[in-house]
Amino acid sequence: KMAADTSVDILQKVLENEILQTAKVVEEHLDAEMQKLDQMDEDELEHLKQRRLEALKKAQQQKQEWLSKGHGEYREIPSERDFFQEVKESKNVVCHFYRDTTFRCQIMDRHLTVLAKKHIETKFLKLNAEKSPFLCERLRIKVLPTLALVKDGKTQDYVVGFTDLGNTDDFTTETLEWRLGCADVINYSGNLMDPPFQSQKKFGTSFTKLDKKTIRGKKYDSDSDDD
């Protein structure tokens, strides 16, 4: 028992020492930053202030530009022609190809509505697959819902059904956000190597991209069970 107590004491001392060392490093870093500010003359401080103001102004202008192009909300576009115009004017676009009678498309809608408000840097659209046969043929969209992820006017990736989202109807908005982050179509601040559904072991961590070559058939397959 004494040996065990001694081990605990040693471990506690090691941990305390680690915490003290970390605190010391942080304190030294703060001191250095404070000293740097103290040593700056008025001109340098003014220059720093101007740079920050310019950066804020630029960010605000960028935000206004995005809003003027329809970012910040999840919108339905009426036709294929609109799709080409919309993707031409925005760097990052997520377009949901849906069908009214497909239950899982409604699930996707709920998550995309939230993400559109959060990720103003990306345009979020929806397009009725039955009203866009040419585009669905060209993009080889056969399963609904499908998200086409477009960068610089080119479709780079697809989210087909819920396969990449943990294979469940109950996936979280964070899971979809992670998947869009993997495609670099939004500014994702989390860890891409750590999917939000990783704790649910049965879902695994891998996701698949749409293999265009393996798609066959004329009609849409539905990812929903209630058709």
Automatic annotation (TrEMBL):
<comment type="function">
    <text>Significantly diminishes the chaperonin TCP1 complex ATPase activity, thus negatively impacts protein folding, including that of actin or tubulin.</text>
</comment>
<protein>
    <recommendedName>
        <fullName>Thioredoxin domain-containing protein 9</fullName>
    </recommendedName>
</protein>
<keyword id="KW-0963">Cytoplasm</keyword>
<dbReference type="GO" id="GO:0005634">
    <property type="term" value="C:nucleus"/>
</dbReference>
<comment type="subunit">
    <text>Forms ternary complexes with the chaperonin TCP1 complex, spanning the cylindrical chaperonin cavity and contacting at least 2 subunits.</text>
</comment>
<dbReference type="InterPro" id="IPR013766">
    <property type="entry name" value="Thioredoxin_domain"/>
</dbReference>
<keyword id="KW-0206">Cytoskeleton</keyword>
<dbReference type="GO" id="GO:0030496">
    <property type="term" value="C:midbody"/>
</dbReference>
<dbReference type="GO" id="GO:0005813">
    <property type="term" value="C:centrosome"/>
</dbReference>
<feature type="coiled-coil region">
    <location>
        <begin position="23"/>
        <end position="65"/>
    </location>
</feature>
<keyword id="KW-0597">Phosphoprotein</keyword>
<keyword id="KW-0539">Nucleus</keyword>
<dbReference type="InterPro" id="IPR036249">
    <property type="entry name" value="Thioredoxin-like_sf"/>
</dbReference>
<dbReference type="Pfam" id="PF00085">
    <property type="entry name" value="Thioredoxin"/>
</dbReference>
<keyword id="KW-0175">Coiled coil</keyword>
<dbReference type="GO" id="GO:0005737">
    <property type="term" value="C:cytoplasm"/>
</dbReference>
<feature type="domain" description="Thioredoxin">
    <location>
        <begin position="53"/>
        <end position="181"/>
    </location>
</feature>
